[in-house]
Amino acid sequence: MTIEIRVPTLGESVTEATVATWFKKPGDAVAADEMLCELETDKVTVEVPSPSAGTLHDIIAQEGDTVGVDALLANISEGAAASPAASPPSADDPSPAPAGTSSTDIEDAPSAKKAMAEANLDRAAVTGTGRDGRVMKDDVARAIAAPTETFAPAAPVAAAPPRAPVSVDDAAREERVKMTRLRQTIARRLKDSQNNAAMLTTYNEVDMTEVMALRKEYKDLFLKKHGVKLGFMSFFAKACVHALREVPEVNAEIDGTDIVYKNFVHMGIAAGTPTGLVVPVIRDTDSLSFAQIEKAIAEKGGRARDGNLSMAEMQGGTFTISNGGVYGSLMSSPILNPPQSGILGMHKIQDRPMAINGQVVIRPMMYLALSYDHRIVDGKGAVTFLVRVKEALEDPRRMLMDL
User: Fold this and answer.
1) Can you tell me the distance from the alpha carbon of 106 to that of 133, in angstroms, rounded to the nearest whole number?
2) This prediction's pTM
């Protein structure tokens, strides 16, 4: 009996995907629920499992092909066993390696190779858990998420003019790799944001002394009670919610000739992943506690790095926070995430000499940057917003008393 393998539903408003990687070849034996291939959409990677055990008869959609929802990907002969001659070993094949195979002969999973290349991650930095030490996709995600090292996501690439001529010698030493659909989408959306919005950035700095002291005092009790670490992001999310109440246009968007004000805050928290920048959305952040915000950030951030976020979880944001400080950035101008009208950039905390009450003292300082759409947000409103964030962080009691 032949079973057709078709493209599954990809998510709201997503109608097509690119076949990224086939894990099996025609003639390979497959088990029920074993992953056959990966599809890339604009935002997420979708794995296609085998519905039953059998043999992969043929592949209809090749790697790199663009396919629509319910398009035919491959056919499986149910219950048939693949003959050894017709079943070349795949990257995920658990069979033992031939005698004398060295570590350099081990073929890593194609999806793992792609993830390592996109994260600019050295093979030696990843511990393989597959058969004979093969590196799998999950191994790469764990290596990037490891707390001992920080890896910066690849920088967004905007549309570029035609390349200048390259010498024959240089061309021979270049490598050309097609951008993933996610990277193409990042490039397009960021360039569209610059072209379509009247984007401007205002800056300020915040003394992190009080937040750091509060976090140090309560972090152990917070972890014991809530089961999650108390980070800086929940303070910034709360401070932004506090400021958005006073300056609602930063939380609004333009629709034609109308301004749509949001009486809620769906906070986007930008996260770097092996395949690019994604922005999971924490819905109704204005009604969440510190613990609920930290749990949501930890849960969504982990699934973002593993590529397990759904399209719905990255849609509907009204305001975004981006933390370049985790990668060591001291100052930057974040780009708007359309159709939003505001994005806050956090940066590295650095001890600097400050004049306080006529005395020069060392304080842990952070530069803040608010990029906003000047079509809807005036300079006064943008500056007021950033000042309110600064005030709330320098004296967290203001948030409790709504001051």
Assistant:
1) 8
2) 0.58
